[in-house]
Amino acid sequence: MTATLAPAGVSGLARDDLRARADSLASGAVHHGGTAVRVEGILKSYGGAGPAALEGVSLDIAPGELLALLGPSGSGKTTLLRVIAGLEIPDGGRVFFGRQDTTDIPVQRRGVGFVFQHYALFRHLTVFENIAYGLRSRERKRRPPEAEIKARVERLLDLVQLPTLAKRYPGQLSGGQRQRVALARALAVEPSVLLLDEPFGALDAQVRKDLRRWLREIHRETGQTTIFVTHDQDEALELADRIAILNRGRIEQVGAPHEVQDHPASRFVMSFVGETARLAAEVRQGRVWVDGRPVLAAESGWPQGPVDLCLRPWDLAVGQGENALPGTVREWRRTGRGTVAEIQLDGAEAPVEVAVTEVYRPGDRVRLEAAAARVFARG
Amino acid sequence: MSPAALAPAAPRAGRPFLRPSALPGFRLTFGITVTYLTLVVLLPLAVLLLRASAIGPAGLWALVTDSRNLAALKTSFGLSLAAAAIDAVAGLLIAWVLTRYRFPGRRLIDALVDLPFALPTAVAGIALAALYAPNGWLGAPLAELGIKVAYTPLGILVALVFVGLPFCVRTVQPLVAEIDKSSEEAAAILGASRFRALVTVILPPLVPAMLTGFALAFARAVGEYGSVIFVAGNLPYVSEIAPLLIVIKLEEFNYTGATAIAAVMLLMSFSALLAINLIQDYSRRRFGHV
């Protein structure tokens, strides 16, 4: 969290006034703790007999935090983002910005920044006019003078590293450049919170990687409270301070990347944040049994009875130990990082890729030892 | 991309316009196009100009500046422009409603829009005359308010608006359907009022299509005859349109006079359409960045 962070809770929506921001900076009013955005029990359904889009979602976002909403498509993550922005009206629940209840404040007056997956730039306006749009949209007495608009747009163009493109039209830019312009446009109004809806979803892999790093830098520079939606767990793990994992309209777990990765709260989280091999197993007598063979010592606190045994591929290695799990090699190949074998463990739903040192042929029988494992009660 | 990469390869000597291409077809299609346009459009118009030129420049000038002819030309072009302008606005609104909203009877209304295309124009003229006559359904209440529609220039305007409407709806409709909803949302999030979003975000991309509709409606209105003569009253100097004047001249066996007025109309229409096209080109460059 940086010292340039403006207090989201204090003056609510008026805070995007430059002067208010400058004052708050001068007085050193930096809030640690507290919440920038809070949603409480958000309900939203799209009618019909289908599943509800959001089934009572509650979440706190700290000032200056970079939070990822992670989930598969249809999990409600975009809907939640749009509810926070004011683009969707929830059927129930409240939204707070700082201490202010913004549930009933129309989208035009919420003062959020929003970046769309497909940029949604104004195609008939130049890059400059796109970025200036929010400032020009203010009512006369809050609209900055032309010289200041110009200065601010130029500063933003520098921030997004496109200082020479002010006079271009969006159609003349590449995808990555468009998304930078969209981000500059969203930041121009000095939003209380920046919302990004799958911001890199439409870009190719390399640009995506660059923009990810660059967004992290911008966030460090500006300390802007940011929520972004993604279905890419790598993106969430790499970028976010905290990750909220959504599934079917509910939050399954909220936590720092290492928490959700090392201590997944549910089988869904486990399999969503990383590749997982899953086997039907049973915990009894202090051991985990697969196919009537004990394979691991059970940790204290693991549920008894039938469970799903979940293993990360990087915790698996070929070994001949007593407890090793039997499996069949499906395929063996070289990659940039070494050699891997695709191994179908007996009783597993899908094969896993395991790093190996020897050469295998499809059909070879191998045994894998697990350095770590997690179990989740079945049902 | 460097500018050099974008620059077209120089055409081979002796073959202007023709660049080597892996996808041939230029020569065949261009040949057919020129032949067809010559036969169907240019030749008849050339004959018209030839016949009109028989009366000489002085005679032509006298005809054009003849006060009755001048009044008719003014009526035709002035009211056509007005009608096209009204259609452009109303057409946008109708296209918007038909595209944006779902309501019972939408398809029916959508089909109704094309009726002015399909109707013999005389039918439209008779219907409008009956409706707006001083004792008609609309004419009677309007007459009480002191507004006369039938047998006045206002009647002509109503008829021209009627026949031009489909052009303005059909040209704009596909573009309304294409409007990116998220750019509207972006405008709202950036604090723009609905009105500001409409003027600055939604309308500009529609301007080129609106101009196309305007040009088509205008062209149709200038040439319109059937629906107008029934409702116009056809008073010389007041509610007489140029096409009617041509017919009158023809009935008097004054072929030269008729072709002369026709030639003038042709030139005026052509310049008007050319001007609209140029504006359209400009607006496409200005607003049409995709």
From TrEMBL, chain A:
Keywords tagged on the record: ATP-binding, Nucleotide-binding, Sulfate transport, Translocase, Transport
GO molecular function: ABC-type sulfate transporter activity; ATP binding; ATP hydrolysis activity
Cellular component terms per the entry's GO annotation: ATP-binding cassette (ABC) transporter complex
UniProt key word ATP-binding: yes
Domain ABC transporter: 37-273
Pfam families, A to Z: ABC_tran, TOBE_2
Translocase found in the keyword field: yes
GO biological process: quaternary ammonium group transport
NCBIfam families tied to this protein: 3a0106s01
UniProt similarity note: Belongs to the ABC transporter superfamily.
Protein name as annotated: Sulfate/molybdate ABC transporter ATP-binding protein
Species assigned in the record: Methylobacterium oryzihabitans
Lineage: Bacteria, Pseudomonadati, Pseudomonadota, Alphaproteobacteria, Hyphomicrobiales
TrEMBL record, chain B:
SUPFAM superfamilies: MetI-like (SSF161098)
Assigned keywords, A-Z: Membrane, Sulfate transport, Transmembrane, Transmembrane helix, Transport
Main subcellular location of this protein, as a coarse class: membrane
Any one GO CC term of the record: plasma membrane
Membrane topology qualifier: Multi-pass membrane protein
Membrane-spanning ranges: 28-50, 77-99, 111-134, 154-176, 197-219, 225-248, 260-279
Compartment(s) where it occurs, according to its Swiss-Prot or TrEMBL record: Cell membrane
Residue ranges of every copy of the ABC transmembrane type-1 domain listed in the record: 73-276
Molecular functions (GO terms): ABC-type sulfate transporter activity
rRNA processing in keyword set: no
Complex and partners: The complex is composed of two ATP-binding proteins (CysA), two transmembrane proteins (CysT and CysW) and a solute-binding protein (CysP).
Annotated NCBIfam families: 3a0106s02 (TIGR00969), permease_CysT (TIGR02139)
Physiological role: Part of the ABC transporter complex (TC 3.A.1.6.1) involved in sulfate/thiosulfate import.
Family recorded in the similarity comment: Belongs to the binding-protein-dependent transport system permease family. CysTW subfamily.
Protein name in UniProt: Sulfate transport system permease protein CysT
Species for this entry: Methylobacterium oryzihabitans
